[in-house]
Amino acid sequence: MQLINQVKAHLHKAFDMKDLGTLTYFLGIEIYCNDDSIMLMQGKYTHKVLTQFHMVDSKPMPTPMDANMKFTTTYESPIIDATLYK
Fold first, then answer.
1. Order of strands, sheet of 38-41, starting from the edge strand that comes earlier in the sequence
2. Full-prediction pTM beyond 0.90?
């Protein structure tokens, strides 16, 4: 903790800045800290994107495509059931 305080003091001398306390949200990422871990989550950002594209009520899918799909150099589109994704 002493090293962090020294770095803050050094930066404060070089730049006009203030300490805003513990970081909880930055660039769309929520940060939760406890004694032994740090969790990064994007729930708010995900909800914002789903709301923006009117997809909040869409059905969740674990994988948006066939996990066993074989890729080739020629393209052949299989018939896809679009209701799975709406």
1. 25-26, 29-33, 38-41
2. no
Angle at 28 between CA 27 and CA 34, to 5 degrees: 95
pLDDT digits (tens, 9 = 90+) for 53-71: 999 998 877 766 777 877 7
Pick from 9-18, 22-31, 57-66: least confident: 57-66
In one letter, which amino acid is 38?
I
For the chain, how many residues are written? Answer: 86
Tell me if 24 sits within 8 A of 39, measured CB to CB. Answer: no
What are the beta bridge partners of residue 38? 33
